[in-house]
Every structure is written in structure tokens, then in C-alpha cells.
């Protein structure tokens, strides 16, 4: 096997993994709406922060806002899964093609990864983790999961950038 094929195979598998993860997360959030909705609700209400936290003025207590936020997260996950899996399919089809063709095949993968960065880094780490102080909660803290996911997404993004 040529080095270029091995690198292409690796980036294709990583893109597929990101797509499957996104699909499974979206599916889980749709089929277990109530359980996972509680997570979003508690983060937005900021009701499990440190007792002396002064950041709670940012909390949102309106159920409609909680549902809108959660539905937006699920929709984003589903769109991300579509772009990543269609990108993985394009990469599979172009895996033995010329470099220019393989580069063009990365388009949807880049879009999906960008949506993942938007959701998992900006949405969960910046907005959830810092604005809503999720880091203070012992029971409703998704920063570890977000960190794990964004790390893999960023490594996949870098792999897409450097693969020929």
C-alpha cells in the first residue's frame, strides 16, 4: 500500500467515525428526548451551580427556550451527521483518484467538521461551559464529553487538511 492511500484511508475512517458518532448522538437525543432534555434544562437554568455562584443572573427558566435550544442541538447534530457521512462516502469514492479529485471530495467532510466545531466547541464548551457555568455543576456537566468529541473532530479536521 502506498503511503498516500493509507493516509486517505485513515482520514476517510476518521470522517466516517465522526459521522457515525453524530448520527448516534442525534438518534439518542431524538429517541430519549425526555432524559437528555433534562440535561439542557438544568444547564440553562443553572440550578446545580456552586451555592455561592453569582453567575446565575444568566439563567433561563422558560421551558419554551429549553425546548427550542434542545431541538436546535438535535437538528445541528443531524445536519452534521449528514454532511460527515456524505463526505465520508465522497472520500471512499475518490480514495484512489488523483489528488485534485480527492481534495474536492473533502467538501462535505469539512462542512460537517465545521458544524461539529460550532456545536461542540462553541455551543457546549463556550456557551454551556462558560456562559452557563456548566463547569460548576457536579451532576449536569458535559464538558468531559464535549472535550473528547471536539478533540477527535479537530484531529480529523487536521487530517483532512494534510491528506493529499
Question: Would you mind describing this structure in some detail?
Answer:
- The chain has 164 residues and is mostly helical.
- The protein is 77% helix and 0% strand.
- The chain has one domain (14-162).
- Helix 1 crosses helix 5 (107-131) and helix 5 (107-131) packs antiparallel against helix 6.
- The model has no long low-confidence stretch (mean pLDDT 96).
Helix and strand run: HHHHHH
Based on Cα principal axes, name the global outline.
elongated
**Count of distinct strands:** 0
Please report which band the strand proportion falls in: under 5%, 5-15%, 15-25%, 25-35%, 35-45% or over 45%: under 5%
Count of spatially separate domains: 1
- Please summarize the sheet with the most strands: none
Specify the helix fraction band.
over 70%
The protein's oligomeric status is single chain
Give the mean pLDDT: 96
| Structure classification | mainly alpha
Number of helices: 6
- Contiguous low-pLDDT stretches (5 residues minimum) are none
Rounded radius of gyration (Å):
18 Å
Summed up, what is this model?
This protein has 164 residues and is mainly alpha-helical. It has helices at residues 3-31, 33-45, 63-94, 99-105, 107-131, 143-162.
Topology:
Elements (H helix, E strand, L loop, with lengths): L2 H29 L1 H13 L17 H32 L4 H7 L1 H25 L11 H20 L2
Helix pairs in contact: 1-2, 1-3, 1-5, 1-6, 2-3, 3-5, 5-6
Give keywords.
164 residues, mainly alpha, 77% helix, elongated
Amino acid at each position: 500500500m502506498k503511503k498516500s492511500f493509507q493516509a486517505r484511508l485513515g482520514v476517510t475512517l476518521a470522517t466516517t467515525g465522526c459521522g457515525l458518532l453524530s448520527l448516534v448522538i442525534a438518534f439518542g437525543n431524538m429517541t430519549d428526548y425526555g432524559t437528555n432534555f433534562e440535561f439542557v434544562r438544568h444547564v440553562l437554568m443553572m440550578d446545580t451551580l456552586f451555592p455561592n455562584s453569582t453567575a446565575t443572573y444568566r439563567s433561563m427558566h422558560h421551558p419554551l427556550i429549553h425546548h427550542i435550544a434542545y431541538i436546535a442541538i438535535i437538528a445541528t447534530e443531524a445536519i452534521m451527521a449528514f454532511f460527515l457521512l456524505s463526505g465520508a462516502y465522497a472520500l471512499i469514492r475518490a480514495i484512489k483518484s488523483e489528488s485534485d479529485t480527492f481534495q474536492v471530495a473533502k467538501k462535505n467532510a469539512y462542512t460537517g467538521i465545521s458544524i461539529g466545531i460550532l456545536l461542540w466547541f462553541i455551543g457546549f464548551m463556550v456557551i454551556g461551559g462558560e456562559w452557563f457555568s456548566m463547569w460548576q455543576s457536579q451532576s449536569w456537566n458535559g464538558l468531559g464529553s464535549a472535550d473528547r468529541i471536539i478533540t477527535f473532530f479537530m484531529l480529523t479536521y487536521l487530517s483532512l487538511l494534510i491528506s493529499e
